[in-house]
Amino acid sequence: MSIDKESLISVSRSRSLKGDPGASGSIPVNSERKVDFMKYADNHVSDVQIAYIGGGSRGWARTFMTDLAMEPQMEGTIRLYDIDREAAEANEAIGNHLSQRPDVVGKWNYRTYDSLETVLTGADFVVISILPGTFDEMAVDVHMPELLGIYQSVGDTAGPGGMIRSLRTIPMFVEIAEAIKAYAPKAWVINYTNPMSLCVKTLYHVFPEIKAFGCCHEVFGTQKVLKGIAEEVLGLSDVDRRDIHVNVLGINHFTWFDYASYKGIDLFPVYRDYIDKHFEEGYEERDTNWANACFACAHRVKFDLFRRFGLIAAAGDRHLAEFMPGDEYLKDPETVEQWKFGLTSVDWRKEDLQNRLEKSRHLLEGKEEIELKPTGEEGILLMKALCGLERVVSNVNIPNTGLQISNLPADAIVETNAVFERDAIRPVLAGRLPEAVKDLMMPAIENHEMILKAALDCDKELVVKAFLNDPQVKGKKCTEADVRALIDDMLEGTKKYLPEGWNC
Fold this sequence. Notes:
CATH architecture of the largest domain: Alpha-Beta Complex
Number of helices: 18
Strand content: 15-25%
Low-confidence stretches: 1-35
């Protein structure tokens, strides 16, 4: 049976908040309209208003819908906003159909909105998950630096690709931050967009009082590696990833553990012994339910970094490699293959998008249903905690203003553990990074400052300076002339999504 999209949309809109002019209406900045608040009863909260910027997503949106559908303690409205309104309306129909299923315990009303103003006004939470540009622009990010021998395994966080992507992303986040300041200043803002550190940094730059944080599952992946190794080496079974207690310190996608424990067992000696015995073959995960197999690795980069620096690197090898000099793990495709991770091509991403579009069509036509199984994400759990239903410790990306990492700058965006509870995030003091690891991290932190300013001022010289400071570029011993030519070509290839100030 196919989903009656129009019917679902009309039903959804009939459930408007009192005084709401409707999803397509306009709310004045100084509106006196009443905003309904969340309602608490019997350890349950209703009327939660979640604004989802990027709500036309064909991928992560279904992860979000699944987690919401499986959560019995929360319900409310998911406000979808996307520059592609048709895509958002498709998710509106899919989400409302899901909520009507008898096996779904989390009942949510999905609605599409036409502007940042209308979607944000009255929101309790704001979720940001957007793609800055298209995969054609990502092809520029990832593949154009290969002309200088610079290979990137991801290209969305560090290196030339991450920096050019940032120039497209930061202006979008400036607009979003300004809108949040105007229409939802007290909402909790959760970012999933990469480059994570610069997205969060931009939000705080524009609106210092914003209640924003970044979520990333890379730490969870490393906990799962430790879980698997502990089960194999110690003869344990059914270890819960969440019972692997770790101290998290670093920056997004270049995060580290200096402590790892399971019920009184120090996991560092276990990890060290496993590496000594299995360094060459690495570790093959049994369960990669949150990630496509294309992104799999044998964790040999992680193992090597442990041998070199004595800490457990807590991100996937594809990300870790991009923070290291370009003549090491990413020297060439053959070297990448030896370390048993991959260079994800943009062609693969384009093919995957077509598969996801087909999946959306099947869901709309009733040919498929969303499968209800845990996704491995923690976003909904953190929302529950902020609503006062839980008290949770999890990793988070926020400014280092409390010097949670004592030897990194206070204005850096860092990733550490934090306690989530009713309307509060309290960062955990993670301690100091070893100087050798800090030295690896500082070029990225320095580049965050330069690229933010470059994006705000349309300053190409700062981009050149950041490129020349990047470990991938340095490792290839690129000349300044070659770097300048590469930057010109990359800016030209992505100009459709850059502000007018770059056209000079």
